[in-house]
Amino acid sequence: MRAQITIKDIAKALNISASTVSRALQDHPDISKATKEAVNAYAKEHHYKPNAIALSLKMKRTNIIGVMIPEMVHHFFSSVFSGIEDTANARGYSVIVCQTSENYDKEVKALNALQSAHVSGVVASLSKDTTDFEHYKELVENNTPLVFFDRICPGLKTDRVVVDDYTGAYNAVEHLIKTGGKRIVFLSAPANMEICKNRRNGYIDALRAYKITPDERYIIECDSREKAIELTPQIIEDLQPDAFFAINDETAAGVLYVAKRKGLSVPEQLQICGFGDGKVAKVSDPSLTTVEQNGYAMGVEACKMLINRIENGNDMKEVTHSVIRTNLIVRESTR
């Protein structure tokens, strides 16, 4: 492997000082045109790359953004990341992404690694089992810009971008009611998550608005395809629901799989609605009615917020909360 040349190597080769090489590479006005041309030609010929760490220490900024993602395989989170990365690159920033795999310990280690890398700021969404936020509190106390998206930490005063979970859930359940649903099961995420609280409230308020008394037996923690396949047979047998509203599309797809295995007609006998509008919603048979989260727009907005903090000062006296609107996408799994 070819060794990377340094500024000192260029200086020695051209018989000039290292400081002159450095200023020539930065197009400093005090350096002659001939010297700049000679330095840049030599640097290009020998594949010189600036030392990003040294440059960041000098500039006191790395131009690198850290991103904490629970699951990259999840369509929503990959869409958010695409929005973040596109926006960051367009503004001259690079991105380091850490996947926490819904694990608190992995989340803490990843955030520590980002701090050690001296990232300019962090965009983060909490892991499912995170209930202790000291690692994020430490980040804020170190004056590192932080923006939460989707899964937020309500106890920390930070910028945040969320989807309108309450309205999305309300509209989905209202649609199920208007198309004949009366015994609607809500397959929920862990109760500690803010998105779960908001979607649960939307579910309950929609029922009440149509004079249906909420029943706690119909609210069940189940937020993955695998768990839905495991639990749905018993739910159908015990509660005899006519509709399911699932916390995400993967869970809704698990319900659909069980319904077809049991010979239930969807949507005639059982209506199913998800949340997210990922690929699974479009390729399922029948295709899934779902709530579109607009993940890409969320990523763009979160990254813009973070870069604004990085470039214009991290005064946390005032924070920004942005809400991305949802859309109900009606497909074949509901009437």
Structural class: alpha/beta
Order of helices and strands: HHHHEHEHEHEEHEHEHEHEHEHEE
Distance between the termini: 63 Å
Total DSSP E strands? 12
The helicity comes to 40-55%
Mean pLDDT: 92
The backbone outline, from C-alpha atoms, is elongated
Low-confidence runs of at least 5 consecutive residues: none
C-alpha-based Rg, rounded? 26 Å
The proportion of residues in beta strands is 5-15%
How would you sum up the major sheet? 6 strands, parallel
Q: Major sheet: order of its strands?
A: 2-1-3-4-5-11
Tally of DSSP helical segments: 13
Topology:
Elements: H1 7-14, H2 18-25, H3 33-45, H4 52-59, E1 64-69, H5 75-90, E2 94-99, H6 104-116, E3 121-124, H7 134-141, E4 146-149, E5 159-163, H8 165-178, E6 184-188, H9 194-209, E7 219-221, H10 225-239, E8 243-246, H11 249-261, E9 271-273, H12 279-283, E10 290-292, H13 295-312, E11 321-324, E12 327-329
Helix pairs in contact: 1-2, 5-13, 8-9, 10-11
